[in-house]
Amino acid sequence: MKALPLLLAASLVANIVLVLPRARPDWVSFAGSPENGANASSAPPAGSSAPSASAATDLAAALKSQDPESLRDALRVIGLPAETVRMMVTSAVWSRYQERMKALRPNPEPDRPWWKNETGTWSGGMSREQRAELRKLQREAGDEALRLLGPGKENTDWGWRDPRLAFLPDAKRKDLQEIEQDYQDLLNEVQQDMQGFVLPSDSEKIRFLQEEKKRDLAALLTPQELADYDLRMSNTAQQLRWKMTRFDASEEEYRKIFALQKAFDDARQTDAYGNPVRQGPEDWKQRQEAEKALTAQFKEALGPDRYADYDRSQNDEYQQLVAVSRRLSLPPGTATAVFNLRHEIAAESRRIADDANLDAGQKKQAFADLAARSRDEVRARLGDEAAEVYLRSGMHWLKNVGDGNVLTFFEEGNRQGSRPGIPKEPKKPAAK
Fold it and tell me: Are 78 and 16 in contact (CB under 8 A)?
């Protein structure tokens, strides 16, 4: 970080004399505008002329001293864009902490073989105390940048209000972010101590922190705010959001599915990471039954047509088709049309297998023809290059059809199965 302002300094100072004579007449209002975080004391008096060449001297001195506050004022005087000021001042702030942060990290092992990684790299080789000190320095640097520049990309919210938290007033949103950060730091410490091996006591620590976080959130938020928080930020919401994005769900659909999924998640007996506590045959059977019930609830909540859209959207093959359609600007509906070929192919494979008028040789040829026609259809819709990729990576099951097998697709979990579709020829009697 330290090199950035120094690299810019040479160019700025060398050209400052050329810049200043052409300074904009409105530089005063720009430098002192609320949008740029300036206050009245940092802006020149109203009605004064454009900055003189002495600004070059002030800027050079500020850059050399690496004093962020002086640098901020000098850059604002010459009317640089707010983001340029922010970039250089933030760099100056972090450069003041760089050496102390670097000192906390252990030196590389001098005799380590080049073909091996460092030992103890799970936590960067730092002790608990060093990690705590590093977080302290990082927060101090962030706080100083916030004091000098106001909210922006360098602060904890990155100058961007998370739309998921828009329902909260500013004060509560900031308090919530602090709670989130505090517990994330504590969880990170537990995970660092694990060193890749989880003990039961580790799971209990994480569970304890999760329960404490819930209590802190309940103390900060009203019941309605807490419900809105869960709807947007809970573990269920974090997982469900990916599915709902693929599904292109409406808010009403998201709320319906969230309520069902949250009830399902809360009823499961899991460890701190959401894994089943017991994994015996009976537990897996019960889970499968619960998932079937959840699927039925989804169908009822969404209706048959939208549930079909939801189910298809979660299939990896369909997502490949969506991606290729987007990349190649294929006509709308191409992804769905190619994906639905599977149902037509499966039905035709069953018809061939059940046709009593075809002998084994004819059925073998019919299966091969079905596979060939299907490949031609995919090429016609996707183009030759994309089709070859999809046929190998997504539609690989088509080979089973070409080999004479009946294809079946199951709704739950997008599973598939196959069975022989050509009767075996009777064995010839052994020669006597």
Answer: yes
